[in-house]
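Milestone M4 deliverable, item 7.
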Amino acid sequence: MLLRKNLIEMLLEVTYGTETIAFTHKIAKRLKYAYISIHQTEGVILKSRKMPVEKAKEIVLKKAPWIIKKISEIQPEPKIAFIHGELIPFQGEKYEINIIEKANQKNVVIDFSDFRFNIFVNPELTDRKEQIENALGKFYKKQAEKKLVSRVEHWSEIMNLQPTGIKFRKLKKRWGSCTYDNKLIFNYNAIQLSELFSDYIIIHELAHIKQKNHSKDFWNLVEEYLPGSKTIHKSVLNHMP
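Output delivered:
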């Protein structure tokens, strides 16, 4: 269970027939009613006021046929084309791209403000998609260095496990790694994920400081600091870059 400002997030799961439905229960005091939504990247989400875990599971079970049907209808997410009005991920949400053409613009500049990505480009740019993609990568890396380092420090203190260094890179088919001299390397695209998922990645790699393999002791250590980690692990793998 993670507390994020006034929001509590819990990863739970229920079984309906032969199907297992993993869902995130987001608890907020301001909510009057419970409701369920299905997201392309975050999966099944139940939002409600605080309630017993069994009650949350009961709500999801009642909607299980609808949830399973909606999940089956989700199409693979298309590759980002970087066009005006398109949505791109950042910290567990998706925000609209606002392309702004400027004749004197030399390099692609990305400014995230007012809950959207303002992307300044030269209208005569021939390799626009490639340059926007490169600029977005730099944006993600800068934001990861700015925001995720504090989360590493937070969990490092709680777990009493100190890395010898922290770096952010673009990694293929992995979210992070821990070297034998305890340097942590994270995929900067983790900044695209919700805090719950990015925290899992951080806790996972910090645990490797103490346990250098994926033994039972390793998974017990991760579970100690993040209950429900096995369910979270599956969800994070589904977001693999």
